[in-house]
Design brief:
Strand content: 15-25%
Shape: globular
Organism: Desulfosarcina alkanivorans
Order of helices and strands: EEEHHEEHHHHHEHEEHHEEHHHHHE
Domain Peptidase M16 N-terminal: 17-165
Number of domains: 2
CATH class of the largest domain: Alpha Beta
Strand order of the largest sheet: 1-2-6-3-5-4
Distance between the termini: 55 Å
InterPro entries: Metalloenz_LuxS/M16, MPP/UQCRC_Complex, Pept_M16_N, Pept_M16_Zn_BS, Peptidase_M16_C
GO molecular function: metal ion binding; metalloendopeptidase activity
Radius of gyration: 23 Å
Protein name: Peptidase M16
CATH topology of the largest domain: Cytochrome Bc1 Complex, Chain A, domain 1
Structural class: alpha+beta
């Protein structure tokens, strides 16, 4: 018996794509209905609508009430959720392979037949307000939220995915239905599924219902942003000051993305990284410090987050910036690069054992590349990265630039940090 995962793809006449990966060694199936529409595709007055729709999808159809949707998923032992990002919205579930047909039926029903009832909109509005409040009350999340406008300014990437309260107050059933019909176009929909599933069986279930979606009138092109170097400081009476630095990164399709991943790992991506060792282990300035990559269709960011004693803010910022300059100035030693490659490949291969991760990877590869990229090709590209590649990337991204900075906590006001942020 062939135990190797196999990938298949079917494109319906209206443009909806169905992509599956058969993983015969697992008993579960993970399915996602993905739309290549997110917060960056909204106008200012629409900001927050994609996220509002994500909530409303689960609030009832002609066949099922909100309670019935929840009850039916629970009855089959299913795990279901949804999320909105800057470029995607996804409705997903995972069940045992014996419950595949039920999962497909429920997900198809809520995606295609949600009523977006006005009374449900009113009930959900305060829930979203609470979600906004939760972010504002959590400093480690708030510094991330503040980084959007600090780095991207007034570009849609600089807005909150949740939207402002004044917009949430104004959204009604008509606005939601109009946005859904205008942007949820069939050629922007990918149905991705991974697990113990046969592709032909999936197509037989999905095609009859998703082929009914009518084509749209086109999609407005996304405006390309320019990274800035803003500073946003918010005083809070806390024990620590939470800070985030943001710098130029790479897009999700940039050929240098493999080098960027390794650069991030070496910089602050694990416990042996430079930032963790210097800030925590050597200097004892923070309990947690990490760097991260955020990539979009046309741009990206490398960020650093930590929380320190207010008296150590300037020292911590200086140490972080010095490590950025070091990546530009000095080649990464061979053994450090080798360790980063093993760490990155190990994480990639372990993630590949999860149907949820494979489902998400199928959809994202389809959106960005129009095909599934074999994991072996990713590993080969990682192995091909050299120390000069890393240094050239660091110089190209950060030479002559400045980092954006956001801070929440005591000591986060009254100080001019602009002189410290030159990369």
């Amino acid at each position: 018996m062939n135990k190797k995962p196999t990938v298949n793809k079917t494109v319906l006449d209206n443009g909806v794509r169905i992509v599956s990966m058969r993983m015969p060694h697992v008993r579960s199936v993970s399915m996602g209905v993905w739309v290549h529409v997110g917060a960056r595709d909204e106008t200012d007055v629409e900001s927050g609508l994609s996220h509002f729709i994500e909530h409303m999808i689960f609030k009832g159809t002609a066949r099922r009430s909100a309670f019935q949707i929840a009850k039916e998923f629970d009855a089959i032992g299913g795990q279901t959720n949804a999320f909105t990002s800057m470029e995607h919205t996804c409705y997903h579930a995972r069940v045992l392979d014996t419950q595949l047909s039920t999962m497909v039926d429920i997900l198809s029903d809520i995606f295609l037949n949600s009523s977006f009832d006005g009374s449900e909109v009113e009930r959900e509005r305060p829930v979203i307000f609470q979600e906004i409040g939760m972010v504002e009350d959590t400093p480690e999340e708030l510094v991330h939220e503040m980084m959007g406008p600090a780095l991207w300014g007034t570009h849609p990437l600089g807005r909150s995915i949740l939207g402002p309260r004044e917009n949430i107050l104004g959204f009604d059933s008509v606005a939601i239905k109009t946005f859904f019909k205008r942007l949820y176009q069939p050629d922007r929909i990918v149905i991705a599924i991974a697990g113990n599933v046969e592709h032909h069986r999936l197509v037989d279930m999905v095609a009859p219902v998703f082929s009914t979606i009518a084509g749209g009138s086109g999609f407005a092109p996304r405006a390309v942003p320019a990274a800035g170097c803003g500073i946003a400081l918010k005083h809070r009476d806390l024990e620590q000051t939470h800070l985030c630095l943001g710098m130029n990164g790479v897009s999700v399709t940039d050929p240098r993305r493999f080098a960027a991943s390794l650069l991030n790992t070496i910089f602050g991506g694990n416990m042996s990284s430079r930032l963790f060792q210097i800030i925590r282990e050597e200097r004892g300035l923070a309990y947690s410090i990490y760097s991260f990559l955020t990539s979009y269709t046309d741009t990206g960011m490398l960020g650093v987050c930590t929380a320190v004693d207010p008296k150590d803010i300037e020292t911590s910022v200086d140490l972080i910036i010095n490590e950025v300059r070091r990546l530009k100035r000095d080649p990464v030693p061979a053994e450090v690069l080798a360790d980063a490659k093993e760490f990155t490949k190990g994480n990639l291969l372990m993630a590949a054992e999860s149907p949820d991760n494979q489902m998400a990877r199928l959809a994202q590869n389809e959106f960005y590349f129009g095909r599934t990229l074999p994991i072996q090709s990713v590993i080969d590209n990682i192995d091909a990265v050299t120390a000069p590649d890393l240094q050239a990337l660091a110089e190209d991204l950060w030479d002559g630039g400045r980092a954006a900075l956001t801070m929440v906590g005591p000591g986060a006001d009254g100080t001019d940090f602009s002189g410290q942020l030159t990369l």
